[in-house]
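Milestone 3.1: sequence recovery, worked example.
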């Protein structure tokens, strides 16, 4: 499932929404049907509006595989359920229970524990200082292995995103570099899709649009090459937002790519996939 239309259709069905419910006040139902059947490629604003109706949040992170904070299956399952449902307040409350804290034993579990607390802080607090410190605690909890784990890469890139929201460009760049260190040697894990997405989002927050475009294009390639679609719709949405930001930039701001790169990219991909099907 590589095409944008297929992903939009699957997401709509998962939300148990009809085409009419999605299309109302956005576009005609027939237009949405053509999009879902890959006969029509939406422009950036139309895609943004559809994603909003589908409750796809630009700043929402989705992990395919959860990380365990202890040996207790009930606690791990509850954390995964609360995280997946975006119930960050309940997740934070659960993680702060003394009985749950006592279950965290190993360095790997400690790393996951602080990471989930950092995600809660990221979504629940206006300031990012607490999330930043929790991410640092998560990364400090890792065993000093030469090979960077999936969670370590995610921790580094999430910290880069926090730095970008605080306007700390050099710190963000450093964390992005750490997240991608020897990335080509990493064994594929669907959670790694998030690394490209957050790197692009970090550049986007810093108004480094050329870097954001390059990173999100690489991320979409990475996702599709590994026959995944986790974070794919989010990636298309981010690409549309980058294009919209470029469109609204003052004329005197030097940007290598024009905002219509979004439509060009989708048209090229759609044509490529169509040719594959014909062959």
């Amino acid at each position: 499932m590589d095409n944008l239309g297929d992903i939009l259709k699957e997401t709509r069905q998962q939300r148990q929404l009809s085409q009419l419910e999605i299309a109302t006040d956005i576009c005609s139902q027939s237009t949405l049907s053509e999009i879902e059947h890959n006969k029509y490629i939406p422009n950036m604003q139309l895609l943004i509006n559809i994603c909003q109706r589908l409750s796809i949040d630009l700043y929402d992170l989705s992990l395919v595989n959860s990380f365990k904070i202890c040996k207790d299956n009930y606690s791990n399952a509850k954390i995964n359920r609360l995280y997946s449902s975006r119930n960050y307040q309940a997740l934070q409350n659960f993680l702060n229970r003394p009985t749950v804290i006592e279950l965290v034993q190993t360095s790997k579990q400690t790393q996951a524990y602080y990471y989930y607390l950092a995600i809660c802080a990221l979504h629940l607090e206006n300031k990012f200082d607490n999330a930043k410190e929790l991410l640092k605690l998560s990364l400090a909890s890792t065993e000093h292995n030469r090979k960077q784990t999936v969670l370590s890469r995610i921790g580094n890139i999430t910290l880069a995103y926090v730095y970008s929201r605080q306007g700390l460009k050099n710190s963000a760049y450093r964390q992005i570099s750490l997240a991608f260190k020897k990335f080509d040697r990493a064994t594929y894990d669907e959670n790694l899709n998030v690394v490209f997405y957050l790197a692009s989002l970090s550049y986007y927050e810093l108004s480094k649009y050329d870097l954001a475009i390059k990173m999100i294009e690489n991320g979409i390639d990475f996702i599709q090459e590994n026959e995944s679609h986790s974070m794919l719709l989010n990636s298309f949405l981010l690409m549309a937002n980058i294009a919209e930001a470029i469109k609204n930039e003052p004329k005197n701001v030097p940007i290598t790519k024009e905002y219509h790169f979004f439509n060009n990219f989708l048209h090229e991909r759609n044509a490529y996939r169509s040719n594959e099907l014909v062959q």
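The longest helix spans residues 107-124. The mean pLDDT is 89.
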